[in-house]
Amino acid sequence: MTAGTTKNLPRILVVDDEHAIQRFLKTALDPGEFSVHLADSGHTGLAAAVAVRPDVILLDLGLPDLDGIEVIRRIREWSQVPIIVLSVREREDDKVQALDTGADDYLTKPFGIGELLARVKVALRRSLQQAPEPVFRVGELEVDLPLRRVSVAGAEVQLTPTEYELLRLLVSHAGKVLTHSQILKQIWGVAYLEQPHVLRVNISNLRRKLEADASRPRYILTEPGVGYRMRSGG
Known about the structure:
The chain is α/β, with parallel strands linked by helices. It folds into 2 domains: 11-130, 3-Layer(aba) Sandwich (Rossmann fold), CATH 3.40.50; 135-230, Orthogonal Bundle (Arc Repressor Mutant, subunit A), CATH 1.10.10.10. Helix content is 41%, strand content 20%. It is built from 9 helices and 12 strands. It has helices spanning 3-8, 19-28, 42-52, 68-75, 92-101, 113-128, 161-172, 180-187, 196-210; strands at 11-15, 35-39, 56-59, 83-87, 105-108, 135-138, 141-144, 149-152, 155-156, 178-179, 220-223, 227-230. The strands form 3 sheets. The protein has a 5-stranded parallel beta sheet with strand order 2-1-3-4-5, with helices on both faces. The protein has a 4-stranded antiparallel beta sheet with strand order 6-7-8-9, covered by helices on one side. α3 (42-52) packs parallel to α4 (68-75) and α7 (161-172) crosses α9. It is globular and about 50 Å long. The two termini are 28 Å apart. The relative contact order is 0.10. Pfam families: Response_reg, Trans_reg_C. Keywords: Cytoplasm, DNA-binding, Phosphoprotein, Transcription, Transcription regulation, Two-component regulatory system. One of its GO terms (molecular function) is cis-regulatory region sequence-specific DNA binding.
């Protein structure tokens, strides 16, 4: 492989103090497909984020010097690079805090490499897009953002203004987990942060209109105790 080819590969920065995890990820992330860079602490991770300018960061929360939440907070002061948290912390509060601070996704260790690769590729597609695609398609669902037209299997679906704005938000962040508080703040404002039932009702209404079986959604996916994620197109 030539040096020029390596430079053109998507850059993945792994920030994790477990060397076994570093070796696993460096091997699992095909060197022919990604350029993998390693850091074993919060401070070295922050320095590498500046030096490497990664396309995606895989971040552990339990670092020896800085908590991963603080690393996310500092990176978000100057960069919107996608951050996928890989952590043994399973508590919903930890996931919500990481996502609210600015992480794009959260996988609990141990995880399947297939799922990780899928999440990385979604994050890469999002980071390479300057703006959301004008027409979003996944399965039989199509959302034409410029025309504000939503259809399923070619049949137009009528949404209320709030339902459409909620769908537009999810589509604009397809593949990314949005927490309950993020969605409530964006759609209804901070006054509704303590009224999650408003969100649940609107998600339920959207699913009834968009899904073939609302009890087994294919498009708007639930992240239990955390929020929702729009299935990514492609």
